[in-house]
Amino acid sequence: MLEKIDHIGIAVKNLDEATAFYKSMGAEPYHYEEVESQKVKVAFIKIGDSNIELLEPTSDESPIAKFLEKKGEGIHHIAYRVEDVQKSLDKLKADGMKLLNETPMDGAHGMKVAFVHPKSVNGVLTELSQPGH
Ligand code: CO
């Protein structure tokens, strides 16, 4: 049901500065996007069959702004690719897992995404993502 690690999300203060390490290693960001539902700007860097997603808040109300305030820059979430986010949410809920979203939202790349509470995943904020079309 978890097909692969789609990406690892890293909270950053500044996208341009945050890409320095990756550029130094020859890994240029291939996609930039503003994600309204999360109030963030993201840059995607392809690493083999997976990605790094760098997230910079666009508003103080962004969950990423709150994360940066509390913990500073660092790993924010791990995203797994699933075939059907809604079905996965229903299954997790039936199994007693704590969800942050009961239905999928629009994420970057036109993906459908939803988050599972860290309390149900060993302290790791977990995203489920499904290609939109
Ligand atoms: Co993500």
Compute the number of structural domains.
Answer: 1
CATH topology group: 2,3-Dihydroxybiphenyl 1,2-Dioxygenase, domain 1
Ligand inventory: cobalt (II) ion
Can you give the mean pLDDT? Answer: 96
Which runs of at least 5 residues are low in confidence (pLDDT < 50)? none
- CATH class (first level) name: Alpha Beta
| Alpha-beta content class | alpha+beta
Query: What is the overall number of helices?
Result: 4
**Which strands sit side by side, in order, in the main sheet?**
2-3-4-1-5-8-7-6
Explain this structure to me?
The protein contains four helices and eight strands. It is α+β, with helices and mostly antiparallel strands and 133 residues long. It has an eight-stranded mixed beta sheet with strand order 2-3-4-1-5-8-7-6. The longest helix has 10 residues. The protein is globular, with a radius of gyration of 14 Å. 30% of the residues are buried. The mean pLDDT is 96. Bound molecules: cobalt (II) ion. Cobalt (II) ion binds next to strand 1 and strand 5.
Overview features:
4 helices, 133 residues, alpha+beta, 21% helix, 2,3-Dihydroxybiphenyl 1,2-Dioxygenase, domain 1, binds cobalt (II) ion
